[in-house]
Amino acid sequence: MSEFRYAVNVLPKPGILDPQGRAVELSLPHLNVTNVSRVRVGRRAELTVTAGSEAEARAVVEGLAKELLSNPLIEAYEIELLEATSSAVSATGASSGAVSAITSGAKVTRS
Amino acid sequence: MRIGVVTFPGSNSDVDALNALAVAGVEPVSLWHESPDLQGVAGVILPGGFAYGDYLRAGVIARFSPVMRGVADFAAKGGHVLGICNGFQVLAESRLVPGALLRNRSLRFASKIVAIKPERLDSPFTHRSTGEPLHIPIAHGEGCYYADDATLDDIERNGQVLWRYVRPDGTPALDPDDPANPNGSLRAIAGVCNKAGNVAGLMPHPERMSESILGSDDGMQLIRSFVESAKAWEAAR
């Protein structure tokens, strides 16, 4: 078994009103920044999956990204593999991909 | 007859909803989020509040709570479910009603009395309405109704738009920046139902205008419609 660390980056779909992005954009003149545009504000979750292969781990993350971490009606997501480590995992819960931690709330800003 | 109100961790309008049901003359039953057992109620209200802290997205964590398994089964059988404010967000995240609720266009939490008008008077949630605008409060940060154009056209065609925000002259506040449209909702949509018509959600709080001592009982037009539909459904089983 190995541990796979992923990031799931969630952003409002193109064309969807993004009031947070708009608010950030409106603050730019106060910082004397004039060459930044098209701000979108989303969400990033990082999580570790214990699984036998990267494909198996990714399938778990895909499922979570679609069902929980994003709302496909309004948001798009990207999955990033951050780290893969082979490790001797204890026998408990090692049968299938088990998510050990989900963190959310950290916000990423992209232009 | 018994009607249930679900309490999630973070619900705050559950007691108001229980009270409104008592005013409507039915036995209110408190349902707990950890059990899928709806205790044989004839209808369910998902109340306002901030279920599970509204973390991630308003309503999404509640979607996966045990009680929502019971609610989804109940809705599939034709039982009547009314989602108010956060309850609407839970229904939308659960895909039990179409669309999504985005952050208010103003970015501000909106807490005030708004005017909404029922779009049709032959639905299970509006048949006891006079057809005049209802003046009832909103209190939300994420109430901007959104769906893509195809979905909007589809729900309009199917008669699934049940309430719209209206201007003082009674016409829909279609411009998302109209002050009568408190959150920027597309096509001024304040509430919708599913295709079958037995599950509805809206952002305004009818249960907070359930007795004249609260300022008005406008909300009871909606609550009574729902209660009578639930009663008829139960009697027909």
What do you see in this structure?
The complex is a heterodimer of chains A (111) and B (237). Chain A is of the alpha+beta class and 111 residues long. Chain A has helices at 19-27, 54-69; strands at residues 2-12, 40-41, 43-51, 75-86, 98-106, 109-110. With 237 residues, chain B is of the alpha/beta class. Helices cover 25% and strands 24% of the residues of chain B. Chain B has helices at 14-23, 60-63, 66-76, 86-93, 149-157, 219-235, and strands at residues 2-7, 27-32, 43-46, 80-84, 100-102, 110-118, 134-140, 144-146, 161-165, 189-193, 199-202. In chain B, the strands form 2 sheets. In chain B, strands 2-1-3-4-11-10-9-6-7 form a 9-stranded mixed sheet, with helices on both faces. A two-stranded antiparallel sheet of chain B has the order 5-8. In chain B, a hairpin with a 5-residue loop joins strand 10 (189-193) and strand 11. The mean pLDDT of chain B is 97. Chain A binds chain B through residues 16-17, 19-20, 22-23, 43, 68-69, 71, 73-74, 104-105, and chain B through 55-57, 60, 64, 93, 99-100, 102-107, 144, 146-148, 184.
CATH secondary-structure class of chain B: Alpha Beta
Instruction: Please estimate the helix content of chain A.
Output: 10-25%
How is the CATH topology of the domain at 2-15 and 42-89 and 97-105 in chain A named? Mth169, Chain: A
Looking at the structure, the CATH topology of chain B is Rossmann fold
Summarize the structure.
With 111 residues, chain A is α+β, with helices and mostly antiparallel strands. Helix content of chain A is 23%, strand content 41%.
What brief labels describe this structure?
heterodimer, A: 111 residues, alpha+beta, Mth169, Chain: A, 4-stranded antiparallel sheet, two-stranded antiparallel ribbon, 41% strand, disordered C terminus, B: 237 residues, alpha/beta, 6 helices
